[in-house]
Design brief:
With about 150 residues, the protein is an all-beta fold. The protein has one domain. The protein is built from no helices and nine strands. Strand 1 and strand 2 form a beta hairpin. It is elongated, with a radius of gyration of 17 Å. InterPro entries: Hemolysn_activator_HlyB_C, TPS_OM_transporter. This is Haemolysin activator HlyB C-terminal domain-containing protein.
């Protein structure tokens, strides 16, 4: 099995406001029939955002491409972001799927509060599907929160 992960982060400014474009690509390729646990899955907050993750598309081969525009909120340690993601799966296991492609959008805010002995970070987001196969069950809007404390 071959796996490719690529990330690119490009900072830029418009009218003295700092922004960052971040793109991430993950691909998986194999000629072998895999167990489900080894399949590439798409349709969660970690792959193609905008989907609730209750149902995903999975197959032996595939990729997802995440794109995000970030706006750091001055010097507060908080960042507003908006993203559009796309993913596609290929292989024999797609024969039983509702489809092979998903696209979704997300908006959110993430940040952190550093402290001398501990740090707190968070991510609050809302997403929605842009494209899904007919008959693919998912929520119209997905909201989520993630919090991390480090000591």
């Amino acid at each position: 099995m071959a796996v490719l992960d690529a990330n690119l982060s490009i900072p830029f400014a418009i009218a003295s406001q700092n922004f960052r474009y971040v793109t991430t690509f993950h691909g998986q390729y194999t000629n072998n029939l895999l167990f489900y646990i080894d399949d590439l899955t798409i349709g969660s907050r970690y792959t193609v955002r905008g989907f609730d993750g209750e149902t995903m598309l999975a197959a032996e081969k595939g990729f997802y491409w995440r794109n995000e525009l970030q706006w750091p909120v001055f010097q507060t340690g908080q960042t507003l972001y908006a993203g559009v993601d796309y993913g596609r799966v290929f292989g024999p296991n797609t024969a039983i799927l509702a489809g092979t492609q998903l696209a979704g959008a997300v908006i959110g805010i993430r940040g952190g509060i550093p402290a001398k002995y501990a740090g707190f970070s968070y991510d609050l987001f809302a997403g929605t599907p842009i494209y899904k196969p007919a008959g693919f069950p998912t929520s119209r809007v997905t909201v989520g929160a993630q919090a991390t404390m480090q000591f």
